[in-house]
Amino acid sequence: MTVSAHTSPPSTILDVRDLHCDRGGTEILKGVDLAIPAGGILAVLGANGAGKTTLINVLSTLIPFSSGSVSVAGHDLGSDPTGVRNSISLTGQFAAVDQELTGTENLVFFGRLAGLSRSAAHDRAAELLTEFDLGDAADKRLSDYSGGMRRRLDIAASLVVPPALLFLDEPSTGLDPESREALWTQILDLRNQGMSILLTTQYLEEADQLADRVAVLRDGRIIAVDTPQNLKSAYGRHRCSVSFPDHASAVTAGQILTERGYTSRKNDLVVGDTGVVELLVRSGFTELNPLLQAIDSAGLTITDVGMTPPSLDDVYFALARSGAQTPQGPAGGGDR
Ligand SMILES: Nc1ncnc2c1ncn2[C@@H]1O[C@H](COP(=O)(O)OP(=O)(O)OP(=O)(O)O)[C@@H](O)[C@H]1O
């Protein structure tokens, strides 16, 4: 079975506008706008308490929202929650599968719940176990699975009937690096088959690896949304390290850079004790080259130059520092 639930899916699978959600008298979501095009992966990135789980719970019809609008695969959440429910699957942070049943038994159970006949449920279970690299563990109880295997089975269980939109709430939380990478491969396979996915994560690397678009959620608001690459270009800076034969040369180079506006106060210049100057620049070698020329013209010898491109970590911390309150960049889809 391929993972395409609709013969002609709408081009936008998820459309969220000005979504608010109050819980226990507190406003948790404060006007969220999001969109996912068919076949896209959007990562919602946020620290503990940002509102990720609340967002997923609202979008998957588990808790009510206060105002705004949500459309999933053309179904309006307010007026047609059943249509939304039939279009989605949710894999939450806590596995919904039964530890005392085998892999096959769990998937057959979910298949039967979804209305498949006994033989169709068995066929689909076998297909999913193979797809998720669990064929050898089909007859083992889940209590004997590793954390990574359980998480894969949990995702497989959400795909017994392929949804138009899959929600993955912090899919790799608690997994070791090897299991995490295996899971990422599975998620990318799903995307390659045309599945649309919204995942929440606290891991910048996960968002970078998996998502076409990253939305940064802070305190119930989306403060930035764009491709990982654009976010890195807009908010990230290249880390340069320029080496000198001695500390005195590095100090002089530091003075030259300070005259050009780079300061330790802004955290974009560090003169180390070992003759190395660390510098943050926005536009790579275009910005660095004239600085190197100025240092060279002052008669200093440069022994080495290294540059590391910006990471999503840099973006995250830059956004956290900036106190950004409004969305940056288009809140919709598009390819990487
Ligand atoms: N039912 C509730 N009543 C009151 N406050 C709530 C309720 N549910 C969540 N909150 C609060 O809303 C905020 C967002 O919670 P949420 O679980 O959505 O965050 P999160 O980004 O998923 O965090 P984590 O990564 O820790 O799961 C938190 O401050 C939480 O304490």
From TrEMBL:
It is found in: Cell membrane. Pfam families: ABC_tran (PF00005). Residues 14-244 form the ABC transporter domain. SUPFAM superfamilies: P-loop containing nucleoside triphosphate hydrolases. Gene3D superfamilies: P-loop containing nucleotide triphosphate hydrolases. SMART domains: AAA. Keywords: Antibiotic resistance, ATP-binding, Nucleotide-binding, Transport. The keyword ATP-binding applies. This is ATP-binding cassette domain-containing protein. It comes from Corynebacterium antarcticum.
